[in-house]
Design goal:
three-stranded antiparallel β-sheet, Jelly Rolls, Fructan_Metab_Enzymes, mainly beta, six-stranded mixed β-sheet, 9 strands, single chain, 1 helix, ConA-like_dom_sf
Length: about 160
């Protein structure tokens, strides 16, 4: 956590504004790190779900969780705001969990076992179906390790077609 950026108190509790300024492509100390979901093979389209760790003026960590869809689609006329929240997590263990569920164009992410939940709808033009990829990324100076990664695709449900 030595490389965590100082938290600017001007952001107070405005996680969304902070995420808009410190998006997934803005290099940091500890983060941004997380997942690019619904990503095209060449990463022209990607939706970032990530964490960024700050230190407040008292040496305590402040963890920001963001969903950044600003590069989720090549379509120019879409509304693509960032969504964010602060995660109430004790970083002394240096571990934080992230679970993202993707259903068509919906990306629902849970940070730290569900302490923070963000739902976002995106409309990729390339990263659809079998052309959608998942990547792990770290744009921070500090090394991060993925201790466990699992991904699966659910089968289509069987519908009762009987009368």
């Amino acid at each position: 956590m030595e490389k965590a950026e100082p938290f600017d108190p001007a952001y107070g509790n405005d996680a969304q504004k902070l995420c808009g300024v410190k998006g997934a492509d803005v290099k940091g100390g500890v983060g941004p790190f997380g997942l690019w979901v619904l990503a095209s093979a060449d990463l022209q389209e990607k939706t970032a779900v990530f964490f960024r760790v700050f230190k407040d003026g008292y040496g305590k960590t402040k963890v920001l969780m963001c969903t950044d869809p600003t590069k989720s689609s090549l379509s120019p006329d879409l509304y693509k705001p960032t969504f964010a929240g602060f995660v109430d997590v004790n970083m002394s263990s240096r571990k934080i969990s992230l679970r993202s569920l993707i259903d068509g164009s919906v990306v629902e992410s849970f940070g730290a076992g569900g302490r923070t939940c963000i739902l976002c709808r995106v409309y990729p033009s390339m990263a659809i179906g079998k052309d959608a990829h998942l990547h792990v990324f770290n744009n921070g100076e500090a090394e991060t390790k993925v201790l466990r990664l699992a991904a699966w695709e659910m089968k289509k449900p069987q519908m009762n077609t009987g009368g």
